[in-house]
User: Fold this.
Amino acid sequence: MMQRAVHITPENLLKSVQFKEGDLAKIAIISGQPQRVFMALEKLKNPIRNFSAFGYTFWTGKYKDKRVTVGNGGLYAPDSALITELLCVAGVDYLIRLGSCGGMREDIKIGDYVLAESALRGDGVTKYYVSDGFIPYADKELSNKLEEVFKKRVHRGIVWTTDALLRETKELVNNAISKGAIAVDMVTSPFLTIAQIYKKKATAILVVSDNLITGEIGFSSIRFFDAEKRMIDRAFDLIGVIDE
Amino acid sequence: MKVLFLQPPMGGWVTWGRHIAINVNHAQLAANLREWYPEIEIKVLDCRALRMDEKQMIDAIKEIEPNLIYMGDALQTTGVAAIHPRYKNAANLIKKVLPKTLVCVGGFFYGANAEKMLKETPEFDFVISGETEVTMPELAKELSKKDPNIPSIKGLAYRENGIVKLTEYRPLIKNLDDLPLPAYDLFPMEKYIGFNYVKHYVETYHSRGCPNGCRFCVGWTNYDPRGNRDWTCYRFRSGKRVVDELELLERRFGVKWAVMMDEDFNVNRKRIEELIEEMKRRKLKIKFFFMGRAPYFLRDKDLLKELREVGFICGLFGMEAVDEETLEKINKGIRIDEVEEAVKAFRENNIMSVVTWMVGFPDDDEWRIKYRFERLDKIDPDMAALQIMTPLPGIPMYEELKSYIVDNDLRKWDFQHAVVRTKYLSKEDLGRLAAWANREFYSQPGRVQRILYHKKYHPFCRLAARSYIETTEAHEQAAIKNEIFV
Assistant:
């Protein structure tokens, strides 16, 4: 039988990649999509590579005299949980998530932004961290600042996180809507949950790629690409107003 | 004698969005006419640029009352053979209201098929065989005489008592520097727009032919087949003369981006060196694009940095196929590693790369097309211009390909519709695979962001890329659902 309490801890993992305290910045901008990571990376001055774990790589550099870490924070709930926890243990205090989502209100258009206030936990990973009634919240102050730097319309509200993109059925979607959700993604729940457990300030901004009510799909539309680019620019504007 | 250069209402390549370019063939012919026969009155009506519909076109022509109307292109990019139904329709409408006005066409597509096209198109009075630059002005001059001697004009298909006749072969122009610069001043220069977004845009044409002579190339159709492989007889304006033209465009017309449509601009290294030197000396700001061959770009790799500095922001070279057997069959004369290296060299010098490739060779099946795509994807040019095999009569491969033609509606002969089948694929399958490849290329994470937003590339290039990405759905409509765009 296994004798240890946990097989692998975040500390074990960080040790295995030769992490040392202070390697990462206090502020991290993370995204699931590799192209967003590379676009964010281009904004850093003299970025140095920190480590790669399970194919997720992080770099730290300077943006307007502030140290910032950027990297791939996971595409789905399980890997997002893993990476978020690693970052929290590695000393990151401010976590800014750049994601994408499907709008669940007719007025939420492709290329709009959703700022998560809290998450509806439809994922499978957070139950390993918190009890059923736990509600993950974004940091209000950080989210307010993020909303301020976005000049374009931002929809604030609850984000439903699911593990099953192809099982967003009418019943499940309408159930989430009835609980106040305005958008769906596959990451926000574990991201906010774990940041909250570690008492870190986290915010998640999501660019809208499709709409579940109208059926519109825009994963490859220019509106989506342009909004994705603006989202990265604005996230860096936020760094300027964070008091570390 | 009043000559009208007419560009009738028409669209363009779907992937280029709203793209309204000057007809550079018209601008050159107008300049020649003006210099050689100044007594001839010249009028220009570019309905595409002026956004005129057919009724407005006819009203305008009635007001002008021309004796001779010329329509034609030097460039395949106007719409390949899909220009013909547009010109035929315009001629038909004109003849209804001005039956005495003569209509002449020439240039791309017509050059190699003059006699045939005149026989098939009663609306036309003349079709120029081979190069238009001398023949068309001579025709206008001859028609201005009381008793014109049409058979004396070389390189012309005409009718005599209802019978179509073809005059003697017209030899090629020897020195392009002898031609005046295109008469840009006669055209609505402020109306032209490139790739949906780029204003102050112009297309230019500084050389003729290509020494390589790829067997599929539609450039052959500019030339009289009675010549001695005229398409491969490469002639060019000197680097100095090219810069004279760019200087005129920048200083007089405020042009900011010139897309040089020479099929093969970089054959001669000395010419490129001269262009760089002249651009530097005159401190021009105009940006430019040209098409060339990958081996020549590699030969001149050491010039790329300077080229970029003097305004070369984007360039194109052809790949077409990836396997040696096909490359040999089409006489492409390149190796794939050269394409790969040229893409790399462009990127190192912040020059956006565009690579052309093709589908629709007789042996193409799904595996071959997807293998070709995978290779292209790995080479990773910034942009890929996909052409579906369009076997125009006049290209060397025509005889071999004609049994594969399954759609004779020339409105679709624009590289973006499938008009052939292959040994293994129906026309529909080929169209579907073309749409698949185009979408797959322009939805690749990382590539899309690089070509849309990376500041190493000039904004004009990024806007052109935007047009390609925005039109992937429309391209699908052309390739799969036969929607007409030209």
